[in-house]
Amino acid sequence: MSRLEDLEAFIHIAETGSLTKAARHLGRSLQAVSRSLAALEEDVGVQLVHRTTRHCSLSEAGEAFFRRVKPAMEEIGEARLEVADRRAAPSGILRVGAPVLFGPDFLVPIIAQYMRAYPQIEVDLQLTDSFVDLAAEGLDLVVRIADLPDSGLQGRRLGALRRVVFGAPSYFEERGRPAHPSELRQHDCIVRTIDQRSGQWAFEIDGKRRSVGVRGPFRTNTMAAIYSAVGAGLGIGYSPLWQIRHLLDAGQVEVILEAFESKPVPIHVLWQEHRLPPAKVRAFIDYLAAGLKLDRF
């Protein structure tokens, strides 16, 4: 059976067209590289390389052999790196991106556990609701809450989050409680003005996704203002459940129209497309998968 050193020598000879250049690149003697090629040809039983005093070229059999062997050797090289990387504890700076409201409550506790487990790690957490470019921003990974298009990134689904319609008990006592999404048109609804489809709330009606147009006398550009307005009884709001869980637990708001909720929004962790993400990234992804408790959201 051919040794890996012989196969490496053959690949470098094929790519450089020279035994001398291959030897220099591998840090081996010319005689050692020549012996590797001879041993490989004896093993496979055909001539792989045509040699002259100044140049080497692949034979027809050598061309076919090179096409098959090169990807296999790359896989072996990556496997070696992965094993070596797994032996090393995560270290360095981990740069993480996440939504503004999601990061402090959900990610920071997990980051704290991760940093205690790996003291050589520093974490730079960047909070933004924009879909930033990882490479341009220098991020190792991002957490995104959305239906994702094909982005060229690798990812892992962490769960899904509900979107709900909610209001204050005082509002429902005065105006009544809608029993169907269509009845929202007769109610004061608080709309976020910066949404792409402002005033269009998504529901699942008769097994199909439907949008219902809503409006009201109060509107704003921030979710924080919406939560305050709903709590003050100014109207009905629409929000990810995780953002209002504290209001719900405190009895300040109530969720309605649960039977018509649209499908939960998936949450993913995404990282740049590498076959082998660094140990610091892999370890943090594992912490996220184990630590995020989304069953109440």
What does this entry show, briefly?
The chain has 297 residues and is an alpha/beta fold. It is built from ten helices and 14 strands.
Radius of gyration: 30 Å
Oligomer: single chain
Low-confidence stretches: none
Give the topology string: H per helix, E per strand: HHHEEHEHEHEEEHEEEEHEHEEH
Strand content: 15-25%
The count of DSSP E runs of length 2 or more, i.e. the number of strands, is 14
- Helicity range: 40-55%
> What's the mean pLDDT score?
88
Q: Label the overall shape.
A: elongated
Question: Which structural class matches the secondary elements?
Answer: alpha/beta
- In the sheet with the most strands, the strands line up as 4-3-5-14-6
Q: Give the end-to-end Cα distance, rounded to a whole number of Å.
A: 57 Å
Give the count of helical stretches. Answer: 10
Biggest β-sheet strands, sense, barrel: 5 strands, mixed
Protein architecture, described:
This protein is an alpha/beta fold and about 300 residues long. The chain is about 40% helix and about 25% strand. It has helices spanning about 5-15, 20-25, 30-45, 60-85, 100-115, 135, 170-175, 225-230, 240-250, 280-290; strands at about 50, 55-60, 90-100, 120-125, 140-145, 155-160, 165, 190, 200-205, 210-215, 220, 235-240, 255, 265-270. It has a five-stranded mixed β-sheet, with helices on one face. It has a three-stranded antiparallel β-sheet with strand order 12-7-13. Strands 1-2 form a two-stranded antiparallel ribbon. Helix 2 (about 20-25) packs across helix 3 (about 30-45). It is elongated and about 95 Å long.
